[in-house]
Amino acid sequence: MADADTQTPSGRDYRDTVFLPETPFPMRGGLPKKEPEILAQWGDLYGHLRSLRQSQNAPLYVLHDGPPYANGDIHIGHALNKTLKDFVVRSRFLLGYDVDYVPGWDCHGLPIEWKIEEQFRAKGRRKDEVSKEEFRTACREYAGKYIDLQRDQFLRLGITGDFANRYATMDFTSEAAIVAEFHKFKNSGQLYRGSKPVMWSPVERTALADAEVEYHDHVSPTIWVKFPVVGATDSHPDDLLAFRTATPSIVIWTTTPWTIPANRAISYGPEINYGLYEVTALEEGLDYEPWAKPGDRFILADKLAEEVFKAAKIAAWTRVYDIDPSGLECAHPLAALDSGYGFSVPLLAGDHVTDDAGTGFVHTAPGHGADDFAVWLAHGHREVPDTVDPDGAYYDHVPLFAGLKVLETEGKKTGKFGPANGAVMEKLIEAGNLLARGRMEHSYPHSWRSKAPIIFRNTPQWFIRMDEELEDGATLRDRALNAIDATAFHPAAGKNRIRSMVEGRPDWLISRQRAWGTPLAMFVDRQTGQPLHDPEVDARIVKAVAEGGADVWFSAPDADFLGAHDPERFEKVTDILDVWFDSGSTHAFTLDPRTAESGYSGDRPSHWPADLYLEGSDQHRGWFQSSLLEGCGTRGRAPFNAVLTHGFTLDENGEKMSKSRGNTTDPLTIIKESGADILRLWVALVDYSDDQRIGKQILQTTVDAYRKLRNTVRYLLGALNGFDEAERLTDYDQFPPLEKFILHRLWELDAQVRQAYAEYRFQDVVRPVLEFCSGDLSALYFDVRKDSLYCDRPDSIKRRAVRTVMDEVFSRLTAWLAPLTPFTMDEAWTTRFPDAGTNCARVIPETPVEWENAAEAERWARVVEIREVVTGALEVARREKTIGSSLDAKVTLFLDDTADKIGFDPASYFDGLELDELFITSQAELKKGIGPSDAFKLADINVYYARVVIDPLLDAPKCARSWRRVPDVGSDADYPDLSARDADAVRWLDARKA
Known about the structure:
The chain is of the alpha/beta class. Helix content is 37%, strand content 17%. The protein has 28 helices and 30 strands. Strands 7, 8, 9, 10, 11, 12, 13, 14, 15 and 16 form a 10-stranded mixed beta sheet that branches. Strands 2-1-24-25-18 form a 5-stranded parallel beta sheet, sandwiched between helices. The protein is elongated and about 130 Å long. 46% of the residues are buried.
């Protein structure tokens, strides 16, 4: 373009005649400063969008929020989750929907309870010294503080939703609704109280559900224990218990020595082959004496006998004969030390027994294992011993071990195994019934909150039945499985994952022995043990909770609720509900009250079920499942039509983030240093369905992608400066081929973007758009059309076509990317249209069907390939200094159209194209044929038919405005230093200035 250093014959400086892009939109985003300003401009954006769409009679879409826990600042997992939800909300608005999205918070549960306990301890007060009312009030205040904090942080991230009407599980109306949902289970017969082994956290002093348990590697002691056989049926060999041989022992193996005092039976596998083995020799050269002796007799699974002997340092043995364990009776291995263990230990057949590891026998403590409990009951036994108290210590009635801790619950050793294991092993040695011991690292259940190991412990708890027939003849499990099959899962693999969990899950344990939560607000008949079923009592309970919160259940006299019932006959249940029941019920008080079926007619309509639930993949066993069961139990179906899951965020090396390792990435720091749109763009770029990585290098890549998008939009803003409807070209036939190709790409991308948003494939929105910006626009369209944009007469058909197409590109880019980078797209839109309102309120512009042009798409795919050959030849000429810029060159393109080689005429693709503009040279021509042997060519097999010759034009006259070296420079006497095209454009400008 006009060169400031070149003295033109006329002495005129033509720089002010060149139409260079001009825009106040800055190259650098300055997002940390700019984004808060945009947030202020938006105001109640969500309310505005809902009002606008409702005025347009838009269809309703409902995203129900899985509540984050109100505890601490948001972390990168929160940012990923909430940003994905915002993509859904904003993209549905963009697609023309009215969107209902009410952010919520989960407030009850142990993490907050612990924090409050810590606060009271710091003041010198134990929890049992604080009234339940005072304690719950402190919990409520703590949760409220973090709801406000997290809300502000989510808003800064650009999350749009009905924050003004947010829900929280601790709101009085929420707690009342949760109690009402609980009553539905109670009154339908799905609720029962049972005594069975449940996962118990001594540290937290409460039962845990499956969803509250995670597994970590743990080193446990392993022991092989002898149970002496003391009785056998007549079907066994006569010499089995003969005096002349040692009393045989059945050997069990366990990783929980502390459960031996609770042993009541031994389980065996009916299909397993067992044998009686006699020890003949021990290993020699040991630095200790094995507990086995020659002559000892053991009953073992044949497949595992050798492994047992290896552990016991037995060198040689003899298999005496086959043994059927059925009908055998053993003595407890501690019977010789205390008469409290003087009961017989029966052998029970159980399908859960295998010969994959251990001894082929399973030590059975019905109070400490689900399989143990089931096989014990299956064989007609009813009494289940209680050996371990809520604090993880043996009860006082347990012989030899009273008061010993299985798990430490206080002090520095909290969560560590206590002395119980060691004490049991020492007593087994004393009794002569420990055969061997060792240590094993294995996966062991831990509480996901305290991170401490848990135990199985027999306790009375409240459960919801999974396999009881309901009024429709189906069980809750049946309903849930049918609902899963009717649900759309994104990704599809989620269906099998949650289905397998529901198929195998036990009854739903819903009671907890803690203080901060929604109570199981019901009364139990002291005589029958059954819950009270009285609609009037239930109504009084729900009304009182709605008015005064769940605290009223603990503070009000029983008579306030029972009415005519005798308070002496009924016991108030003070357990609290599983927090998953809380969150699983959120649909009932967040969506239900605002449906047309519920008579709602306000400006915040919703519908039930929700269109989508969106959470991390761990929620297949958490919120997705509790919501599924709650909905199926009370309404016969799931409260959602579709489920979307995302993976977890790891560091750049694929490692789990941990504060102790110093590898965390703080979303608030990213927002402060780079801006929320950078974080949002990272979310858009990753495959959220799998685990993602984030770190400085990855974020730098995201910043680079952001710059490409920003610079593209900035160039369009500059190029479109002053564009108005009078300039718009409306006749499609008047558009040049390149413009038709770009319009085709817009038509193509529009369909892709709409489909990707509809299917929640946000990566498939941003990546194709980025490729379009860097490839079709920057590398081709902007490059080729720069000369026409800068130098053509403003009223020329071609320049009008260029600016019209750029306007269409701008209109669609700012719409397509609005859900992903809303701050930047809004800044761009309002820079160009300051009075048009927010970009967030737009819908994707309709794309004319006439823009589809497969012929131009095919043409430009070939042209771009061939153009690369020309670009390569020009680069060589510049490197060899035969030319300065490409405008110093004439290109001759040779295309070999030999039919038997390529099957098409490559020259035909250039029909109607201006080659010099396409190649950004001053002159260009195309010739058919092979071309000179020394002509430039690329090795690329796709363009082997193209060769290029570059001829320097350094001696040719140069246009002082466009720098092109064309023959008609000087042809206009009024402008002797310009080409004819440029002279015409300047004359047009001069005439308007006169």
